[in-house]
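Example record used in the benchmark description.
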Amino acid sequence: MTILVTGGAGFIGSNFVLDWLAASHETVVNLDKLTYAGNLHNLAAVAGDPRHVFVHGDFGDTALVNSLLATHQPRAVLNFAAESHVDRSIHGPGDFIHTNIVGTFNLLECVRAYWVALAAPEQAGFRFLHVSTDEVYGSLGKSDPAFTETHKYEPNSPYSASKAASDHLVRAYHHTYGLPVLTTNCSNNYGPYHFPEKLIPLMIVNAQAGKPLPVYGDGQQIRDWLYVKDHCSAIRRVLEAGAVGEVYNVGGWNEKPNLDIVHTVCALLDELKPRPDGKPYREQITYVTDRPGHDRRYAIDARKIEQQLGWRPAETFDSGIRKTVQWYLDNPDWVANVQSGGYREWLAKQYGEPKNPI
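Model output (structure tokens):
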């Protein structure tokens, strides 16, 4: 048995591949374009595992995807591939439209053709699982109820708009063609292998380097925080038992303002790796101009996945953030590689242009 994962060298995707191979005997075909956020160093622990088949390529390359489906005959396709950074989408929305909308469309077309040609038993067991975000729902007021699966879509950034469009395409392929799809919409993930452009790893990395810790606006933007390995376990559970055509919101039950997150990271660093001068890392906090259209609050109501599939996060925020800070302290080489041009230079030498390895 085999599954095909797109974007499996990124933050969430690589954590999923590592956890999957630790818990299952099934082979993973891992298709990743290896953009700046895709990193094969994330997967070093399974580099020699024959169950991990890495393919350097674009999920928008229909010839490549078709050949992978035909060769490996996966029982499921899980789509993690996405451009995901809001700030980048503001400065360069074109990449987000191309990857998140056009790429997902191309993948769906390939998967639909593959699924239609399967024998009836394999058709019945096949699943397409699309990994999405709570940002498609827009922004909440401070006292508004949390997002449920039936909340209307109100995306406010080019990133969230492109993910909303991809969600709609997945839904349409189920209702129009009968493709057996599942969709998950998650809250803010954190944990190992997170590229240091996002809030938590940026704070950890900048703090140790003696750089400012930039906080947008007043720092009171509220997010629900989900430890990445909990997210991976939720995806495995949805793939195992989710009802075809359904959407499942995945959250950590951890609503916190961004400034509180920064203070928590600083306090942990004060404990685990104090500044040489003995001063608190909080002194490095710098308030910067808020980004355009910054959503004020996200909150996930994850009761559906708990009540229907029996899933809840295993980590509290206190336990998850401690593990995360410790991981970054323990892995300075990984941090240095993703921040420098060294990894990109190695990648070009090792792989050159994306190609079909079959």
